[in-house]
Amino acid sequence: MRLTLCKAISVVKRACARHSPDIHSDFMLILGIESSCDETAAAVVRDGCEILSSVISSQIEIHRKWGGVVPEIASREHLVKIEPVVKEALSNAGVNVGEIDAIAVTNGPGLIGSLLVGVNFAKAMAFGLDVPIIGVNHIEGHFFSVVFENPPVEYPAMALIVSGGHTNLFLSKEPGSYELLSRTRDDAAGEAFDKVSKLLGLGYPGGPIIERHAREGDPKAVPLPIAKISDGKPDFSFSGLKTAVVRYVREKGIRPVGHGEEPGRHIKDLCASFQSTVVRTLLKTTERLAKEHRPKTLIVAGGVACNQELRAESERVGAKLGIPVYFPSKHLSTDNAAMIAAAGYFHLQKGEESGLDLGADVKIRLQNTGTDAAAGNGKKLPYKI
Ligand code: KG4
Ligand code: ZN
């Protein structure tokens, strides 16, 4: 079993202050559980801001040979790993299971089979321990991933959440309120990295591999388009970019890289140009909407936030607009359970709690204010057992 232990990290305690309504709290230990995609993760978090342990069992090696996540394999792996991962999280935190005050679990969005493993394990534990359980939206978890290592988030905040499954820009006027300003119309940014990497024979997951080769390429070598949405909405789109890469590969007769082979200049240039186009696409809209909505903090989170060019360019935009940009460190950018515990803490402090009828909801939305929320787009598909 490959467990990546994320050591207890140094914590900026006051980072939580803004996220937690000012009500009584002395020392709350939350067990976070995350299994929405291909990471089985558990963490013990104290008072929503101090990570006592964070264990992540990644399935990357298992899915690599298929070039992407295979849902059935993912859920079977979660079943095997969930118990040892939770046990290891408790043991690394030096906490007895009976000391846990509440359980926070991702209940959507994600892969249904994967989500159900975490949700049902968490419900069984909550029932056995007689402690509250709170279902957490995975995307809200990414939002909360910045609370551990940054100063308090000042509101209104804008959050660019970029991962393998999601590319969203939220305006959060106050803690717990999310207005969706922009989303992807097709592929998520991370998904585009993964697809282009597969096309070039570079492997999975694509983001870190493309970033590595991009360092040796020329970002101006291949002209690639930034998509424009015809209805004028500030949404993102990455499928046209992927098609442009396919066309370029065909025109230039570029062969996918063979196993263990070092990519040539054409591919490195293409990686650099592609990465730079994704980053420019994301930040052009972010900058425009930040000028319009004038947030006090910009959050950039999710797996793609590991990308150094995205970080550097986000910092540049933040500096230009005079607002701080908060990122999670790398092990908190990709999927983890500490962020789920932090988001769960916020809701529990507000007096919210889920029941033991908590179900997995693959299409759960985070937006709870603004026109998109009111329009009721993306109907819920609840799965309960
Ligand atoms: O947040 P995450 O772990 O899972 C989801 O919620 O989807 O994000 C995984 C995604 C993958 O698509 C991966 O290729 C991308 O994050 N990613 C990166 C980098 N590291 C991971 N994308 C660009 N550059 C990176 N360094
Ligand atoms: Zn994620």
* Gross morphology: globular
Q: Look at the structure and give the mean pLDDT.
A: 91
Based on the coordinates given, report the CATH architecture of the largest domain.
2-Layer Sandwich
Strands of the largest sheet, in order across it?
Answer: 1-4-3-2-5-6
Number of domains: 2
Taking Cα atoms only, what radius of gyration do you get, to the nearest Å? 20 Å
What does this structure look like?
It is a single chain. This protein is an alpha/beta fold and 385 residues long. It has two domains: 3-146 and 332-383, ATPase, nucleotide binding domain (Nucleotidyltransferase, domain 5); 157-327, 2-Layer Sandwich (Nucleotidyltransferase, domain 5), CATH 3.30.420. It is built from twelve helices and 13 strands. The protein has helices at 60-64, 71-93, 112-129, 138-144, 189-199, 206-214, 239-252, 265-293, 308-321, 330-333, 338-349, 371-375, and strands spanning 3-6, 29-34, 39-46, 50-58, 102-108, 133-137, 157-162, 167-172, 179-183, 297-301, 325-326, 360-361, 382-383. The protein has a six-stranded mixed beta sheet with strand order 1-4-3-2-5-6, sandwiched between helices. A five-stranded mixed beta sheet has the order 9-8-7-10-11, sandwiched between helices. Strand 7 and strand 8 (167-172) form a beta hairpin. Helix 2 (71-93) runs parallel beside helix 3, helix 6 crosses helix 8 and helix 8 (265-293) runs parallel beside helix 9 (308-321). The chain is globular, with a radius of gyration of 20 Å. The protein starts with a strand and ends with a strand. Residues 1-15 and 17-25 have low confidence and may be disordered. The structure holds 5'-O-[(R)-(carboxyoxy)(hydroxy)phosphoryl]adenosine and zinc ion (ZN).
